[in-house]
């Protein structure tokens, strides 16, 4: 069984519910896809376990319809799709590795990112820090349901968690050419909080961070980060508003209303 993502993303894309694989229709050609397998994730679980040869999540390179590539290139922004199948591993819900965006040359802030959930429910763990990432000054969990959007503010490391029993599929829009920094999460075995699935406390502080910090809870439905995006976070909606997305490549333009 597949689910048609086009009503929410604006592109001819389906996701296979059982396998989590993406299928691309005309006029999209099948893009390069990066997979993260279970053994890739070994450094960031709360409780290490024996890894299998299994894909835990995958993401596409930036996508574009014929004739659109130059528009996206000129804006310096890429739009892609991420799939995270459901599961519980070592007591944790399925998640991604976690990363920070490095600061562009000449900027005092790291680039933000736009996430829109196309299917399922996402918990995004955000943690504010800066090189050398020794401490976290803010920790937030944002719940985002299908059709909702969250903007990751500058200087927040982040990862997605799939707390549901169906595939999580979401789109991203971000500055192109970014070399995400995974090392701070590797060194500390994950984010500042783990989301556990098997009884006990739901959210567990990661003791490898220097000091405990409260975890704030936010629902995307209650946010008004960028009103102009409310009805236009599909591929086509973003493509037609690229002039309003300059904050993705120039973090100093990040709107005050978009902070959490």
Question: What does this entry look like structurally?
Answer:
The protein is 8% helix and 34% strand. With 260 residues, the protein is mainly beta. The protein has a single domain, classed as Jelly Rolls. A six-stranded antiparallel sheet has the order 4-5-6-14-9-12. A six-stranded mixed sheet has the order 7-8-13-10-11-17, with no helix packed on it. Strands 1-2-3 form a three-stranded antiparallel sheet. A hairpin with a 2-residue loop joins strand 7 and strand 8. It is globular and about 50 Å long. The termini are far apart. The model has no long low-confidence stretch (mean pLDDT 95).
Which features does this protein show?
single chain, 260 residues, mainly beta, Jelly Rolls, 6-stranded antiparallel β-sheet, 6-stranded mixed β-sheet, 4 helices, globular
User: Helix share of residues?
Assistant: under 10%
Adjacency order of strands in the biggest sheet: 4-5-6-14-9-12
**Number of helical elements:** 4
The CATH class assignment is Mainly Beta
CATH architecture: Sandwich
* Arithmetic mean pLDDT: 95
- Kindly provide the radius of gyration, computed on alpha-carbon positions and rounded to a whole number of angstroms: 17 Å
User: What oligomeric assembly is this protein in?
Assistant: single chain
Topology:
Elements: E1 2-4, H1 6-9, E2 13-16, E3 22-24, E4 33-37, E5 55-60, H2 69-75, E6 77-84, E7 88-89, E8 92-95, E9 113-119, E10 121-128, E11 138-145, E12 149-152, E13 156-162, E14 168-175, H3 183-187, E15 193-195, E16 203-205, E17 215-219, H4 235-239
């Amino acid at each position: 069984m597949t689910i048609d993502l086009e009503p929410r993303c604006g592109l001819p894309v389906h996701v296979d519910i059982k396998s989590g694989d993406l299928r691309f229709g005309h006029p999209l050609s099948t893009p390069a896809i990066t997979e993260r397998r279970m053994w890739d994730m070994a450094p960031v679980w709360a409780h290490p376990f024996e890894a299998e040869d299994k894909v835990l999540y995958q993401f596409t390179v930036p996508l574009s319809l014929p004739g659109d590539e130059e528009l996206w290139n000129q804006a310096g922004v890429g739009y892609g799709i991420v799939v995270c199948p459901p599961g519980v591993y070592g007591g944790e819900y399925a998640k991604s590795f976690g990363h920070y965006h490095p600061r562009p040359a000449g900027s005092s802030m790291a680039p933000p990112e736009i996430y829109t959930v196309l299917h399922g429910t996402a918990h995004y763990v955000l943690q504010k820090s800066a090189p050398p990432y020794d401490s976290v000054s803010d920790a937030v969990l944002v719940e985002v349901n299908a059709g909702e959007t969250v903007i990751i503010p500058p200087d927040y490391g982040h990862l997605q968690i799939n707390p549901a029993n169906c595939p999580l599929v979401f789109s991203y829009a971000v500055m192109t050419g970014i070399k995400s920094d995974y090392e701070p999460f590797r060194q500390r075995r994950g984010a500042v909080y783990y989301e556990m699935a098997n009884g006990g406390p739901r959210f567990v502080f990661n003791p490898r961070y220097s000091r405990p910090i409260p975890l704030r809870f936010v629902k995307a439905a209650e946010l008004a980060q960028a009103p102009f995006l409310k009805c236009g976070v599909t591929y086509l909606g973003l493509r037609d508003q690229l002039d309003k997305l300059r904050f993705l490549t120039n973090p100093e333009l990040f709107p005050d209303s978009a902070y959490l």
